[in-house]
């Protein structure tokens, strides 16, 4: 019989082998994806004779903010279909993983997110037929979702299994009860709050950098710091080195989750999306320039354009 | 026929490695769900099976069976689980999904049916050990196979047994999730499934292994029910009708209709009669060649109450695997005596024949050829004589 631990099993899995990185590796991947896309788009513009336009490309940070905004959209949409937490979490993971392979300048997340959610529902055994799926979404056709399915699956290197913090939270929940049977009410409250923090964590990069049990422990600590301190003391109090390590992990995970908890302003998203619009349609930039010159005389077209982009964004939901 | 995998769009992209190329050499099977080719990995000349999923057939995009197979086989690497070597999208007029699987030439059902082969107790132990070792690995990963049967246990040319066809597999769900009870091919379906349980566990796989163990000893299916009702009747006739006493909670299952106070079919008027559990002597008569330890393990695997049924870890540690004789080395296991060239010699599991998903199971049973039906009836008669 094999003597492998659960940790060994996790390390053999795709989430560790393909989708785990240090913070430095993560930023390097995103920079490469961004640079690769810019070079590709510049070549395309040149071949269309549009390279004379002063196109402003998106920065890595802008790309990430836009992806994050659409992660929120996945969350809203999963709510519309009443999908459970882990399906929603898997869809968000797919979206985040996809944008480690491609730039938002190559595939707009407003298209990719539908396919990610549709695929996640299937992969997590919550099948929704394409008719039912598209019926509830405005401006989305079955074709627009299905034609991207291969692209998404391939970008994910066909690894569809995603482990989340929800199951480990449940495991800790049971174990903490056995350690402190008299604190059951407090533990129940902490469990529910921890699930919400685990949900928040989907918007950060912690899933790329930490294991689900580590994220689960941090989420529980965010929910009730004192309870987790007591618990870890009982479990690991005699191994001060290990306890110190665990506390460091909890602190780090917590910092990453809290950093990403800040609200993304609508204005920023609209501004990024507008930039993205002109990256994809440099010809419009030429037109806008002409319009701008004209607008000195009759009205403000620029404002109209901004409003149009904002409308598009809002109508997505 | 020589379809090639694209080399990741021909460009270097961060994180996407260069793909191997494959060549499809010969079509060896076709169903509504997939076409199977014998092929080769060009960089290594390794012989592989390529299962090309017919994507255009499905209005809901990638088929659930294909998704499950890819999802689980990507994670499960074990010498007793079929290896998913690669996945690629073939170019061409219609893009399609291709699963590159290790080449396996036979399955356990073919060996069981080959009357010219004699099994020794050591051979049976070897197949059982490999089956349970593969299943142990799946269960450690929280994966339920949900369709174990002899023709999903494939045999490599070197005699190694591999679990295949993960088209019905799923993760052990959370504590509040429900699942469909319409899984597992009928003859290997655990009693909790027959009684409509929606919260079953990995023990459903162990039941199926028990039925396969019995089949290896009998050389004929153990419980070959002809309908779902017949399956229930056959199962309880063989192993006793469960009661609240023998299986706490059984009377709460959706399809449990037995009144233990009444003992004849006429009294209950439904489904099947109430049968007593078989005595040890009765079991000894049924499996005359089995050792006491083999019989112990079989009874533990086919315990009606899933909570009391043995798990894979304990099964691997059972006395049966320690006692003499030692399991036969895979290389020395009996092979098919004669090969029929018209028959496909690449095995990828049962769903390559064209039926995927639980809902199609019944269709699949119906679709069996008349010859097969006849064989089933014959076997059912033989099996019934055993009781």
TrEMBL record, chain A:
GO BP: regulation of transcription by RNA polymerase II
Record-linked InterPro entries: Cyclin-like_dom (IPR013763), Cyclin-like_sf (IPR036915), Cyclin/Ssn8 (IPR043198), Cyclin_C_2 (IPR031658), Cyclin_N (IPR006671)
Domain Cyclin-like: 72-154
Keywords: Cyclin
GO MF: cyclin-dependent protein serine/threonine kinase regulator activity
Source domain of life: Eukaryota
Presence of the UniProt keyword Kinase in the record: no
Protein family membership: Belongs to the cyclin family.
Protein name: Cyclin-like protein
Originating organism: Lipomyces tetrasporus
Classification lineage: Eukaryota, Fungi, Dikarya, Ascomycota, Saccharomycotina
Automatic annotation (TrEMBL), chain B:
GO biological process, one term: cell division
Protein kinase domain segment(s): 22-321
Location relative to the cell: Nucleus
Family: Belongs to the protein kinase superfamily. CMGC Ser/Thr protein kinase family. CDC2/CDKX subfamily.
Pfam families (alphabetical): Pkinase
Entry binding sites for ATP: 28-36, 51-52
Organism: Lipomyces tetrasporus
Name of the protein in question: [RNA-polymerase]-subunit kinase
SMART domains xref list: S_TKc
EC number: 2.7.11.23
Stretches for region Disordered: 318-375
CC per GO annotation: cytoplasm; transcription factor TFIIK complex
């Amino acid at each position: 019989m094999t003597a492998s631990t659960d940790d060994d099993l996790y390390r053999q899995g795709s989430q560790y082998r393909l989708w785990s990185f240090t913070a430095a590796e993560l930023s390097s991947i995103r920079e490469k994806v961004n640079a690769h896309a810019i070079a590709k788009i510049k070549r395309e513009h040149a071949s269309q004779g549009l390279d004379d336009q002063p196109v402003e490309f998106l920065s890595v940070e802008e790309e990430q903010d836009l992806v994050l905004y659409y992660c929120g959209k996945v969350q809203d949409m999963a709510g519309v279909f009443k999908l459970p937490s882990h399906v929603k979490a898997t869809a968000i993971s797919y979206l985040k993983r996809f944008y480690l392979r491609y730039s938002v300048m190559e595939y707009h997340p407003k298209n990719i997110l539908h396919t990610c959610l549709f695929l996640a529902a299937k992969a997590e055994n919550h099948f929704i037929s394409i008719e039912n799926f598209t019926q509830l979404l405005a401006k989305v056709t079955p074709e627009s979702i299905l034609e991207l399915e291969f692209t998404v699956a391939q970008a994910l290197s066909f690894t569809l299994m995603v482990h989340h913090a929800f199951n480990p939270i449940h495991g800790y929940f049971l174990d903490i009860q056995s350690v402190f049977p008299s604190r059951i009410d407090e533990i129940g409250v902490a469990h529910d709050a921890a699930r919400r923090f685990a949900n928040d964590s989907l918007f950060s990069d912690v899933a790329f950098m930490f294991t689900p049990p580590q994220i689960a422990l941090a989420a529980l600590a965010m929910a009730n710091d004192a309870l987790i301190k007591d618990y870890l003391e009982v479990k690991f109090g005699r191994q001060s080195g290990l306890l110190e390590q665990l506390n460091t992990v909890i602190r780090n995970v917590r910092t990453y989750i809290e950093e990403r908890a800040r609200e993304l302003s609508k204005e920023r998203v609209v501004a990024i999306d507008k930039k993205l619009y002109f990256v994809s349609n440099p010809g419009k930039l030429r037109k806008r320039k002409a319009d701008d010159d004209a607008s000195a005389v009759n009205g403000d077209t620029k404002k109209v354009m901004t409003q149009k982009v904002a409308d598009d964004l809002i109508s997505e939901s | 026929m020589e379809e090639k995998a694209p080399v990741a769009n021909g460009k270097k992209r961060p994180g996407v490695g260069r793909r191997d190329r494959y060549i499809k050499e010969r079509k060896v099977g076709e169903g509504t769900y997939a076409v199977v080719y014998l092929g080769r990995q060009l960089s290594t000349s390794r012989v592989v099976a390529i299962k090309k999923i017919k994507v255009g057939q499905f209005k809901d995009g990638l088929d659930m069976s294909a998704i499950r197979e890819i999802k689980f086989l990507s994670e499960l690497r074990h010498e007793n689980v079929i290896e998913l070597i690669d996945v690629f999208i073939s170019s061409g007029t219609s893009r399609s999904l291709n699963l590159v699987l290790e080449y396996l030439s036979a399955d356990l059902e073919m060996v069981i049916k080959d009357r010219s082969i004699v099994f020794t107790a050591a051979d049976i132990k070897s197949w059982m050990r490999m089956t349970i070792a593969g299943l142990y690995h799946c269960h450690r990963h929280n994966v339920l196979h949900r369709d174990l049967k002899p023709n999903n246990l494939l045999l490599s040319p070197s005699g190694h047994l591999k679990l295949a066809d993960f088209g019905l597999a799923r993760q052990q769900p959370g504590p509040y999730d429900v699942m469909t009870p319409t899984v597992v091919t009928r003859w290997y379906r655990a009693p909790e499934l027959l009684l409509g349980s929606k919260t079953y566990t990995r023990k459903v796989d162990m039941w199926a292994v028990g039925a396969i163990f019995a089949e290896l000893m009998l050389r004929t299916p153990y419980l070959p029910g002809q309908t779902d009702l017949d399956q229930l009747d056959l199962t309880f006739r063989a192993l006793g009708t469960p009661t609240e006493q023998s299986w706490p909670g059984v009377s709460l299952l959706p399809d449990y209709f037995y009144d233990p106070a009444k003992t004849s079919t006429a009294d209950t008027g439904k489904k099947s009669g109430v049968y007593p559990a078989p005595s040890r002597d009765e079991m000894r008569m049924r499996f005359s060649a089995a050792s006491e330890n083999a019989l112990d393990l079989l009874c533990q695997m086919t315990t009606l109450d899933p909570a009391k049924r043995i798990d894979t870890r304990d099964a691997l540690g059972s006395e049966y695997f320690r006692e003499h004789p030692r399991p036969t080395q895979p290389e020395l296991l009996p092979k098919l005596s004669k090969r029929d060239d018209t028959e496909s010699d690449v095995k990828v599991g049962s769903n390559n024949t064209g039926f995927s998903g639980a809902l199609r199971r019944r269709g699949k049973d119906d679709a069996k050829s008349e010859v097969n039906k006849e064989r089933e009836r014959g076997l059912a008669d033989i099996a019934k004589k055993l009781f």
